[in-house]
Amino acid sequence: MQAMLRKRNAIVILAVGMGLWLAAAGCTSFQDEGKTSAKPKAVEKKNAPLYYDFGDVLIPKALGLDRQKSFVQKLPGSTTGVLTFSGRVDTETLIAFFNNSMAMDNWKQIMFFKSSPRTIMLFAKQNRRCIIRIDDQTLTTRVEIWVAPVSAASGLLKQ
Q1: 115 plus 67 within the same structural domain
Q2: Which pTM was predicted?
Q3: What is the DSSP letter of 99?
Q4: Is the pLDDT of residue 81 over 80?
Protein backbone atom coordinates (compact mmCIF):
# COMPACT_ATOMS: atom_id res chain seq x y z
CA MET A 1 0.00 0.00 0.00
CA GLN A 2 2.78 2.43 0.93
CA ALA A 3 4.69 1.57 -2.25
CA MET A 4 1.63 2.48 -4.36
CA LEU A 5 1.23 5.74 -2.42
CA ARG A 6 4.90 6.67 -2.98
CA LYS A 7 4.63 5.83 -6.66
CA ARG A 8 1.47 7.92 -7.02
CA ASN A 9 3.06 10.87 -5.14
CA ALA A 10 6.14 10.68 -7.35
CA ILE A 11 3.98 10.74 -10.49
CA VAL A 12 1.96 13.71 -9.18
CA ILE A 13 5.13 15.64 -8.26
CA LEU A 14 6.66 14.88 -11.66
CA ALA A 15 3.48 16.00 -13.48
CA VAL A 16 3.24 19.23 -11.48
CA GLY A 17 6.94 19.94 -12.06
CA MET A 18 6.60 19.38 -15.82
CA GLY A 19 3.53 21.61 -15.91
CA LEU A 20 5.34 24.42 -14.11
CA TRP A 21 8.37 24.03 -16.38
CA LEU A 22 6.18 24.22 -19.51
CA ALA A 23 4.29 27.24 -18.17
CA ALA A 24 7.55 29.06 -17.38
CA ALA A 25 8.96 28.28 -20.82
CA GLY A 26 5.80 29.62 -22.46
CA CYS A 27 5.88 32.85 -20.45
CA THR A 28 9.52 33.42 -21.30
CA SER A 29 8.89 33.16 -25.02
CA PHE A 30 6.05 35.71 -24.82
CA GLN A 31 8.25 38.14 -22.88
CA ASP A 32 11.11 37.82 -25.40
CA GLU A 33 8.83 38.64 -28.34
CA GLY A 34 8.15 42.15 -27.05
CA LYS A 35 11.83 43.17 -26.76
CA THR A 36 12.84 45.78 -29.29
CA SER A 37 15.56 47.74 -27.48
CA ALA A 38 18.50 45.72 -28.75
CA LYS A 39 19.62 45.40 -32.33
CA PRO A 40 21.71 42.23 -32.42
CA LYS A 41 23.96 41.45 -35.39
CA ALA A 42 23.16 37.76 -35.28
CA VAL A 43 20.24 35.66 -34.09
CA GLU A 44 19.65 36.31 -30.41
CA LYS A 45 20.33 33.37 -28.09
CA LYS A 46 19.21 33.13 -24.48
CA ASN A 47 22.39 34.44 -22.77
CA ALA A 48 24.26 35.61 -25.86
CA PRO A 49 25.76 39.11 -25.74
CA LEU A 50 24.18 41.78 -27.95
CA TYR A 51 25.26 44.63 -30.22
CA TYR A 52 23.34 47.84 -29.56
CA ASP A 53 23.76 51.12 -31.49
CA PHE A 54 27.51 50.66 -31.90
CA GLY A 55 27.58 47.66 -34.22
CA ASP A 56 31.07 46.58 -33.21
CA VAL A 57 30.90 46.82 -29.39
CA LEU A 58 29.44 43.68 -27.83
CA ILE A 59 27.49 44.00 -24.55
CA PRO A 60 26.90 41.15 -22.06
CA LYS A 61 23.22 40.27 -21.82
CA ALA A 62 23.41 40.58 -18.01
CA LEU A 63 23.70 44.36 -18.42
CA GLY A 64 20.55 46.38 -19.01
CA LEU A 65 20.49 49.56 -21.09
CA ASP A 66 19.67 52.79 -19.23
CA ARG A 67 18.07 54.95 -21.94
CA GLN A 68 17.84 58.00 -19.63
CA LYS A 69 21.64 58.15 -19.30
CA SER A 70 22.46 57.27 -22.92
CA PHE A 71 22.61 59.31 -26.09
CA VAL A 72 23.61 58.34 -29.60
CA GLN A 73 24.06 60.45 -32.72
CA LYS A 74 24.06 58.71 -36.08
CA LEU A 75 26.14 60.51 -38.68
CA PRO A 76 26.81 59.47 -42.25
CA GLY A 77 29.34 56.67 -41.97
CA SER A 78 29.57 56.58 -38.16
CA THR A 79 27.66 56.45 -34.92
CA THR A 80 28.88 58.37 -31.87
CA GLY A 81 27.70 58.87 -28.30
CA VAL A 82 27.45 57.06 -25.01
CA LEU A 83 25.48 54.00 -23.94
CA THR A 84 25.00 53.42 -20.21
CA PHE A 85 24.27 50.00 -18.76
CA SER A 86 23.89 48.51 -15.30
CA GLY A 87 23.56 45.06 -13.81
CA ARG A 88 24.85 42.70 -11.17
CA VAL A 89 28.04 41.58 -12.90
CA ASP A 90 31.49 41.09 -11.39
CA THR A 91 33.97 43.75 -12.52
CA GLU A 92 36.72 41.23 -13.29
CA THR A 93 34.30 39.27 -15.47
CA LEU A 94 33.39 42.44 -17.37
CA ILE A 95 37.04 43.37 -17.90
CA ALA A 96 37.80 39.92 -19.33
CA PHE A 97 34.65 40.03 -21.48
CA PHE A 98 35.49 43.42 -23.02
CA ASN A 99 39.15 42.49 -23.58
CA ASN A 100 38.08 39.38 -25.53
CA SER A 101 35.09 40.76 -27.41
CA MET A 102 36.73 44.02 -28.45
CA ALA A 103 39.72 42.13 -29.85
CA MET A 104 37.33 39.90 -31.84
CA ASP A 105 35.75 43.06 -33.33
CA ASN A 106 39.20 44.36 -34.36
CA TRP A 107 39.59 46.97 -31.61
CA LYS A 108 43.10 47.45 -30.23
CA GLN A 109 43.48 48.14 -26.51
CA ILE A 110 45.43 51.37 -26.02
CA MET A 111 45.11 51.90 -22.28
CA PHE A 112 43.84 50.16 -19.16
CA PHE A 113 43.43 51.88 -15.80
CA LYS A 114 42.03 50.17 -12.72
CA SER A 115 41.59 51.85 -9.36
CA SER A 116 38.83 50.41 -7.21
CA PRO A 117 35.95 51.02 -7.67
CA ARG A 118 36.56 52.35 -11.22
CA THR A 119 38.09 50.80 -14.33
CA ILE A 120 38.70 52.66 -17.59
CA MET A 121 39.58 50.90 -20.84
CA LEU A 122 40.52 52.71 -24.06
CA PHE A 123 40.29 50.96 -27.42
CA ALA A 124 41.08 52.24 -30.92
CA LYS A 125 40.35 51.47 -34.53
CA GLN A 126 41.68 53.32 -37.55
CA ASN A 127 39.14 56.15 -37.35
CA ARG A 128 37.30 55.57 -34.04
CA ARG A 129 37.97 55.45 -30.33
CA CYS A 130 36.04 53.67 -27.59
CA ILE A 131 36.20 54.33 -23.86
CA ILE A 132 34.66 51.78 -21.52
CA ARG A 133 34.17 52.93 -17.94
CA ILE A 134 33.18 50.34 -15.34
CA ASP A 135 32.02 51.58 -11.92
CA ASP A 136 31.62 48.95 -9.22
CA GLN A 137 28.81 50.21 -6.97
CA THR A 138 27.29 48.69 -3.83
CA LEU A 139 24.53 46.57 -5.37
CA THR A 140 25.19 46.97 -9.07
CA THR A 141 27.86 47.64 -11.65
CA ARG A 142 27.50 50.58 -14.02
CA VAL A 143 29.13 50.58 -17.45
CA GLU A 144 29.45 53.55 -19.80
CA ILE A 145 30.58 52.98 -23.37
CA TRP A 146 31.70 56.06 -25.30
CA VAL A 147 32.41 55.81 -29.02
CA ALA A 148 33.63 58.74 -31.12
CA PRO A 149 35.12 59.17 -34.57
CA VAL A 150 38.65 60.52 -34.98
CA SER A 151 39.68 62.41 -38.09
CA ALA A 152 43.04 63.40 -39.53
CA ALA A 153 42.09 67.06 -38.95
CA SER A 154 42.09 66.48 -35.17
CA GLY A 155 45.79 65.62 -35.23
CA LEU A 156 45.15 62.33 -33.44
CA LEU A 157 45.67 60.11 -36.46
CA LYS A 158 49.06 59.30 -37.96
CA GLN A 159 49.43 60.68 -41.46
Answers
A1: yes
A2: 0.67
A3: H
A4: yes
